Amino acid sequence: MKRLLPSLRGKKRYIAFELISEGPVDRSDLVKEIMSSASSLLGDVISSECDIKVLGFEDWKGIILCSNNRVKETRASLAALTRINGKRATLHIFGISGTVKRATEKFLQIHKVFEPEIETKFRMVEE
Amino acid sequence: MGKPKFYDFCVHAIPDGDNTVEQLATLAMHFGYSGIVIANHSDKLSQSPPLLVSTNGFEIFRGIELIEENPSKLNSLIGKFRKSVDVLIVHGGSETVNKASLENPRVDILNHPSFDKSSGLNQVLAKAAAENGVAIGLTLRPFLHSRGSRRIRLLSALRANLDLARKYDVSLVLSSSAMSCFDLRSPMETLAMAEICGLEQEEALEAMCTVPEKIISRKRLVSGYIREGIEVLKERDYF
Question: What CATH number is given for A10-126 in this structure?
Fold first, then answer.
């Protein structure tokens, strides 16, 4: 199928984030939790308008895509994330940008992932 | 107007919550807060008061969240703790407690006044809160941790309280009421959450910046505060 012209595609925003969690998290688990938290907080109709997609997630950092006029709603639904796979987690947003390139340069390369004693301590307790 | 300073006015540290003051402070600083208030519940106070060090412009304030059902006992507790803490919060949730704390000008904040089947406020209490300068505390944690019917009930109680607060000009304070590091949310996400829950953007900003600053400055004028980082502590003046 022919690809949609750029001027006809919807405008997007790219959210650079880090994840702070008790244990290791899979990309698929993260996607599942984000979707369920969005549909629970906003309802299915508005969640579909947000058009949330996880573009990439590795090494506790990643980028989420959303529609440009539903950034606030997306932010709130990401904030409502409390547990991933039964383990407590928090999603912290570094910033929002209009292109993947800019989001990576501006936020992901500069910001160091929060590496505190908190995580390691929790892991030690679990072991 | 510079960058707004965000405060989280209700954070529970060990032994009430799961994490130490230092851990919570580091994370809050990383998230971009300018200060937090360590407000443990009054039934779970630590024996030795934690040392609160404010560094690089990040301030940690002493607070307390009083739990007491009996109004006369609550008033005596307020008298007991008022001098030693910066921020005095009352754990709301029943008609008598809400009434007693909103009618007492020495209280700073009444947290989550709603109880089952009622938003916890009415026109009489809202008027009293405005007169006595008691702020209504909106806590984020219950909204994050509940889903479905429970969250719906919380949200409708919040909306009812918001209407009253707007009508009678009651100030609001938005806080996380975090029990652990994983309950903390960064200021921008808290604002987004508040806007989804029905607050206007300016209201939410005011509830995280202006009102907390006002409460802190009230305290600074009275106590032995000299300048940032220096204050006169009397012996046994803490907790």
Answer: 3.30.70.3250
When pLDDT is averaged across residues B72-98 and rounded to a whole number, the result is 88
* Cα separation, A77 vs B199, whole angstroms: 16
Give the containing element (helix H, strand E) for B141.
Answer: helix B141-145
Q: Which two tokens stand for residue B76?
A: 């005596």
Q: Is residue B63 part of a domain?
A: yes
Among A96, A93, A87, CA closest to A33: A87
Q: Are B181 and A89 in contact (CB < 8 Å)?
A: no
- Per-residue model confidence (pLDDT) at position A127: 40
The HSE-up count of residue B10 (CA atoms within 13 Å, CB side) is: 27
In a domain, B234, yes or no: no
The backbone torsions φ and ψ at residue B6, rounded to the nearest 5 degrees and listed phi first, read -100, 140
- Rounded Cα distance between B96 and B104, Å, is 12
CB contact under 8 A, B144 and A88: no
On whether residue B212 sits in a domain, the answer given is yes
Each residue's pLDDT tens digit, A71-111: 999 999 999 999 998 899 999 999 999 999 999 988 888 76
What is chain B's Cα-based Rg? 17
Sign of the dihedral through C-alpha A106, B23, B171, B92: positive
SS3 B124: helix
Give me the amino acid identity at B40. N
A37 has pLDDT over 90: yes
If pLDDT is split at 50, 70 and 90, which confidence band does A125 have?
very low
For residue A126, the model assigns a pLDDT of 43
pLDDT digits (tens, 9 = 90+) for B107-125: 999 998 888 778 888 899 9
Range of the domain at B212: 7-224
Report chain B residues whose CB lies below 8 A from the CB of A118.
19, 23, 26-27, 181
At B201, which CATH number? Answer: 3.20.20.140
Do the domain assignments include residue B231?
A: no
Across the A:B interface, residue pairs with CB atoms under 8 Å apart total: 63
